[in-house]
Amino acid sequence: xxVRLMVVDDHRxxxxxxxxxxxxxxxxxxAAAAPAAGAAELVISRAPEVCLLGTAxxxxxxxxxxxxxxxxxxxxxAVLVLGPVPSPRGIAAAFAAGASGYVRHDERIEGVxxxxxxxxxxxxxxxxxxxxxxxGELLNPAAQPDDEGQRLLQMLTPREVExxxxxxxxxxxxxxxxxxxxxxxxxxxxxxxxxMKLGVGSRLEAAALAARTGLLDRAGASGG
Length: 224
Description:
This is LuxR C-terminal-related transcriptional regulator. The protein is α/β, with parallel strands linked by helices.
């Protein structure tokens, strides 16, 4: 039997793609909303069985406040956090807020579905590899992994970064061209260069990679 779900993510393209994939697998997706700031109100009003809540910064203070509110007002709702490879602090913060599990943004749909079923059954849903990585970081804090988001950001020109941000917001070529004041053919070329530099084959993959690595947050910080 399908699960009544909600998908809430800052990046609309990723949210809608995941919602569509879950619908195809027989689940009832109540909403796919972009602004995480309004997640709590939406979840409380709709009361799904499981909510998938996306975040690009799992270690940021207060990022899981919506989870706290949902669990306080709708304790029967299981919340699964979708995010990049988390630090131990990120995983701990998610569970401390009341989340039922943590799933990587780039997890295959089968893995997401397994996590959903576990969360609905009241079980903790975290991939063993994530836990192993978190414990490994705790045991070896001196080992600093490469910052993939920063590395990818340095590969892109400022123009290409703007294109990537617009792609992640779900804009098509026409909207990108209009928003940047360039010809559609130029926008299309920029998009192709972004995909090539990131080593992905589609706009959806580019948006997912940017979300997983925190690249978009870094782009916003450097631009502001």
